[in-house]
Amino acid sequence: MEPPENGCADEYLFDPVILKQIDFSKHKATYKPMISPANPGESLLLRPLCLGDFDRGFLQLLSQLTKVGDISRELFKERFTSMKSCPHTYYVTVLEDTRINQVIGTATLFLEQKFIHTAATRARIEDVVVSDDYRGKQLGKLLLDVLTLLSKKLGSYKVTLDCKDKMIPFYNTFGFTKEEGNNFLQQRFKD
Ligand SMILES: CC(C)(COP(=O)(O)OP(=O)(O)OC[C@H]1O[C@@H](n2cnc3c(N)ncnc32)[C@H](O)[C@@H]1OP(=O)(O)O)[C@@H](O)C(=O)NCCC(=O)NCCS
User: Fold this and answer.
1) CATH of the domain at 63
2) Number of domains in the chain
3) pLDDT at residue 1, rounded to an integer
4) Are the beta carbons of 37 and 146 closer than 8 angstroms?
5) Alpha carbon of 86 to ligand 1 centroid (Å)
6) Does some domain include residue 29?
7) In a domain, 9, yes or no
8) Each residue of 13-64: pLDDT tens digit?
9) Sheet holding 158-160: strands in order across?
10) How many angstroms separate the CA atoms of 133 and 74, rounded?
11) pLDDT for res 112
């Protein structure tokens, strides 16, 4: 695994080469102005989550999406290590503004291994958030396009996500649709 590009003595959650290998050529035309995984914007870097992102505002960013709770450095490290010990499963991807060493966007791709469909893999996109000051710059779109392409590249038979009603138009634009007769059900045990 290559050393982190942010210059810190740090550790990636997954191999950054995986992001570099994504073929983005067919998507380029849909970005105006043009941005890409290799060039997401001035001073921005698209990369896997790092252990050091605890100090780069990763959890504060997630709190713009939902309740995060009190996560100590130890708990963050424990969860990071636990995710990393499950190969080919957790692809927490971030956008860092390297000028200020802050994580300003994130989305997670989670791969669930199954027995059905000939031992297939199903992908889920979770926890998509772009920081307030950086919205409207196609960064949410970039994160979704990258993780959707990655889910396909990693051999998933489908990729799904849950969202609030008001976000359906946003996800529709990326090809996510509600399937007639298929419903998302849940029992919630905690807020
Ligand atoms: C939703 C979110 C990730 C979008 O990020 P962003 O970087 O501002 O989005 P982009 O600039 O990439 O927008 C891409 C397209 O989606 C549209 N869009 C953005 N937010 C939208 C929303 N809330 N509803 C509908 N469309 C939306 C944009 O207008 C743009 O359309 P265009 O290409 O026709 O101009 C961001 O607003 C956010 O973090 N919100 C809070 C957390 C959240 O709700 N996350 C989703 C949880 S399901």
Assistant:
1) 3.40.630.30
2) 1
3) 55
4) yes
5) 30
6) yes
7) no
8) 999 999 999 999 999 899 999 999 999 999 999 999 999 999 999 999 999 9
9) 44-48, 90-97, 102-113, 121-130, 158-160
10) 29
11) 98
